[in-house]
Amino acid sequence: MAVKKTQPNIDTIVSLAKRRGFIFPSSEIYGGYGAIYDYGPYGVELENAVKREWWKEMVQERQDIVGLDSSIFMHPQIWKASGHVDGFADPLAECKKCNTRLRVDHLLEDIDVFADEKMTEDEINKIFNEHKAKIKCPSCGASDFSDAKKFSLLVKSNLGNFTDNWSKEPAYLRGETCQGIYVNFKNVVDSTRVKIPFGIAQIGKTFRNEIAGRQYVFRTREFEQMEMQYFTHPDKEMEEYEKLRKTRWDYYIKRLGLKEENLKWHQHENLVFYAKDAYDIEYNFPFGFKELEGVHARGNYDLTQHTKFSGVDLSYNDQKTGEKYLPHIIESSVGVGRTVLALLTDAYTEEELEGGGTRVVMKFKPTLAPIKAAVFPLLKNKPDLVAKAKDIFTELSKHFMCEFDDNGNVGKRYRRQDEIGTPYCITVDFDSLEDDTVTVRDRDTMKQERVKVGELFDFLSKRVL
User: Fold this and answer.
1) Using CA atoms, how far apart are residues 79 and 68, in angstroms rounded to an integer?
2) Would the pLDDT of 151 be above 90?
């Protein structure tokens, strides 16, 4: 059995994801809505598996990290304090021929020139003007652009404001989840038994007013973040930072099962003034290596800003030493959608079968597979087989995400389950009625074995949980 090991292109992933119910364009019957996607029946299961594994890694299995679910809407001053109101912006230029607005950093990136997001408008325009002649508008092909201007990425809302001035005094949909962690730091310390060093983890929706989406679910206007902010003593920040870097690297290989050759570290060259270090874990997506997760040492800037703007002292009092200080923060931040895209890419496999023919199989780690087991009656027109298969499905589905399928011949059912990554297919045949055994087929090897019905729970528990 020959295996095609090259990375799939993005069109292949998009096609499979829609055809097999992982990801749909949002509002598709109305022509779609730019840079927004919906997760289908198998996509939502994969999403939930990703969030479940992250939560187990970050919170459930650690004594020093607790969870939080902060609000999407927060006091507008929070975004002023964090710097988002004044500095959270993308550089845009307009094509003078077709009037399309475009991200300047993306235009430069397409010709292998990189503009840092922290650059001023003047700094970006200097680079942009040097390379304009090489850049083509993706809409019309022209090379005549306006100067770059920064536009805010914060999404405005009139929440609680019914006047005509709401756009001048807006509330905001959060641009990142970590601010909810910072402003709840004192609440967590006061209401729990945590002691520094400790972390606060959160999974939640984030909104960014991107001018245009890029690269499928890699960059969207609405997405979910999984973030953990770890509060440390100032003298221990870099020691804890190196520990976090190691655990996050190991997570992708050991916990999610991504191929190590598809991952690499990228260190930020231009740091914001308050940061001590910043690395990204990059994954080899169908469009090349791009950021999957950021691991950053942020110093005490965030708590300093919120102390200043709120008037509430966010210092930590160490009861053992009597020392009082503003903790330093190291963070881990990753998008659910980017993780799903990495898993879809990594799992996609094309195999040439013995005797001719090919199959596409999504080789997810079994713990992440949307469906853990599919149950088939050999024939759909034999009531005894159908009844026994449904009984097995009913029992197993109490413990695992399962699927019942009696449509088409068994070979076609296998192929459907291969394409959604189901690790095991269970077939009820005529022998099952006599000896209470079933055929269990392994997704990756395609080998089959007979297993007693009463042993199926233990069989699956050892392999998919």
Assistant:
1) 19
2) no
